[in-house]
Write a structure and sequence with these properties.
Layout lengths: L1 H33 L13 H49 L7 E3 L2 E2 H17 L2 E2 L2 E2 L14 H6 L7 H13 L11 E3 L2 E5 L9 E7 L5 E6 L4 E5 L10 E7 L5 E9 L8 E3 L4 H21 L1 H15 L8 E3 L10 E3 L23 E5 L2 E4 L7 H15 L9 H16 L8 H37 L3 H26 L8
Parallel strand pairs: 11-12
Antiparallel strand pairs: 1-2, 3-4, 5-6, 6-9, 7-10, 8-9, 10-11, 13-14, 15-16
Helix pairs in contact: 1-11, 2-3, 2-9, 2-10, 3-8, 5-7, 7-8, 7-9, 8-9
Length: 502
């Protein structure tokens, strides 16, 4: 009986061995068919943890590559728009306005103003550039256009006022009801002429000072609130050719001056005041000449500065600085500005208007330790100045019968030229291009490193996961030989019986 039991046990062991070899045969056949050593992480044995880590690294590299592609695409589109905006700004300054001519051709505007409107249309289109579904100049508000339409910016939208209305209201506030630029009419009392501001407010002329070369004359002020100054000619008449100068500050931060020369000619030449019979009479003539010059400048220099400041009030905005409007009506006697609201004033920039760095409004991780910043907001100083200049020049109209129109036009054109001129004290479009180019270079450098890393990591994965077909074929051949031998042995054992030993 012991011998029979041993034979049965041997047969069972052979059967188990055949089953194991059969499983090995199936596994090797699957490896040969799929090229993989295992069909699950669990089957990789002790290498599974390392394999998972390497695959995680490969996934991160793939996500970085996607981010790099996005950055490069968006930066290229941003740079293209910036380059064009820089070009039309330069063309406006050096081509359209040089040489400066005043020839009204349509709607009370010059061809330069009509071109400014075309540039405004294009600038708005450039700022509303998209990459896919992402707006490129709206900061973090990538699903929102950066700017309103040029028509709404100029003409308003329903109850919301546009730039033209803001300029009109500001001009009324700056010129005042009597056209003296918010100064009281000069008053002569004895030998002294007094000039005063009409109230305390941000509008119109502001007295900056006065000088004279008249011997014995004295200048007092400006001082007080509202400010005033006086010019006392003293006890004797000024000589022929003596001068009096009054300096005035304008709403947009620029200044102008009135220079009057004493003259005994009849009629009194332009830019002069008549020497009277005595100092008191001369003071009266000085006050009259000064008054006429103030009203003249209110239509030219002050009107140009008023349009520029109205544009500043409308465009120079962000989350903490809303647009400003004259607190009226009435506007010609207004004494303050007020915050505009969304219902009464067009908001020209409609993207993210936070006050932190615009570059930080759009970021991308392009490496384990590198994040690039390439956001742009359309209300950044350089971009805003271009749009503001085009819009301001396109918003004003002139009359061919207005004797002061040419000087007012020249004043506005000069301010547009100055705003668009290169400056070391204001942001330039080229500086934005440089900053986003830096982000693009960093992304490109990361791509180079990733391109170097990926083959190495892929080689590690292949070493862990991939089956060597030559090795698998050799194992299959060896296993097949072993399996045939085992089958033959099993076949021989199956023919054994107790009769053969009797």
């Amino acid at each position: 009986m012991a011998t029979i039991t041993g034979m049965v046990s041997s047969a069972m062991m052979n059967a188990q061995s055949l089953a194991r070899m059969r499983r090995q045969l199936d596994d090797l056949s699957l490896q040969l068919a799929t090229g993989k050593r295992a069909q699950s992480y669990g089957d990789l044995g002790i290498d599974r943890g390392f394999d998972i880590n390497v695959r995680g690294s490969m996934a991160r590299l793939s996500s970085y590559m996607d981010a790099i592609t996005t950055v490069k695409t968006r930066v290229e589109l941003q740079n293209s728009s910036l380059q064009r905006l820089n070009t039309i700004s330069r063309d406006m300054r050096t081509g359209t306005l040089q040489p400066l001519t005043f020839n009204l051709i349509a709607g009370g505007q010059t061809d330069s103003q009509i071109q400014a409107k075309n540039y405004l249309d294009e600038a708005v289109s450039l700022l509303n550039q998209k990459a896919g579904n992402t707006f490129l100049f709206s900061g973090s508000a990538t699903d929102t256009p950066a700017a309103e339409t040029a028509d709404h910016i100029l003409n308003g939208n329903g109850t919301a006022a546009g730039l033209k209305q803001i300029i009109s209201e500001r001009l009324q506030a700056d010129q005042g009801s009597d056209g003296r630029g918010r100064l009281d009419a000069p008053i002569a009392a004895g030998t002294a002429v007094t000039l005063a501001e009409d109230n305390v407010h941000p509008f119109g002329f502001k007295l900056a000072g006065a000088t004279t070369d008249i011997a014995g004359a004295t200048v007092t002020g400006p001082s007080g609130s509202p400010a005033s100054l006086s010019i006392d000619l003293g006890g004797s008449n000024p000589p022929e050719g003596a001068t009096v100068q009054v300096r005035l500050n304008l709403p947009d931060g620029t200044s102008t001056s009135i220079t009057l020369t004493a003259s005994s000619e009849v009629p009194t030449p332009a830019g002069s005041f008549s020497i009277g019979a005595n100092a008191a009479a001369t003071a009266t003539n000085l006050a009259s000449a000064l008054d006429g010059k103030i009203q003249e400048l209110a239509k030219t220099d002050l009107a140009a500065a008023s349009a520029a400041e109205a544009a500043n009030n409308f465009f120079d905005t962000d989350a903490s600085n809303p647009a400003q409007r004259v607190d009226g009506p009435p506007f010609d006697t207004a004494t303050s500005l007020r915050d505009a609201t969304a219902t009464d004033t067009v908001k020209w920039y409609t993207g993210d208007d936070a006050t932190d760095s615009a570059r930080n409004s759009m970021t991308a991780r392009v490496d384990d330790a590198i994040t690039v910043h390439y956001g742009i907001r359309g209300n950044e100083e350089a971009l805003r100045n271009s749009v503001k200049s085009f819009a301001m020049f396109a918003a004003v109209t002139f009359s061919a019968t207005d004797a002061s129109a040419r000087d007012r036009y020249n004043g506005i054109a000069a301010r547009v030229t100055a705003t668009l001129a290169p400056s070391s004290t204001t942001q330039q479009i080229s500086s934005i291009q440089t900053e986003i180019a830096g982000a693009n270079l960093a992304a490109g450098a990361s791509k180079t490193r990733i391109d170097d890393k990926k083959p190495i990591l892929q080689g590690v994965l292949d070493g862990i996961e991939n089956a060597d077909p030559n090795e698998v074929a050799a194992q299959l051949l060896a296993l097949n030989t072993q399996l045939q031998a085992s089958l033959q042995t099993t076949s021989l054992l199956s023919k054994l019986s107790l009769v053969n030993f009797m």
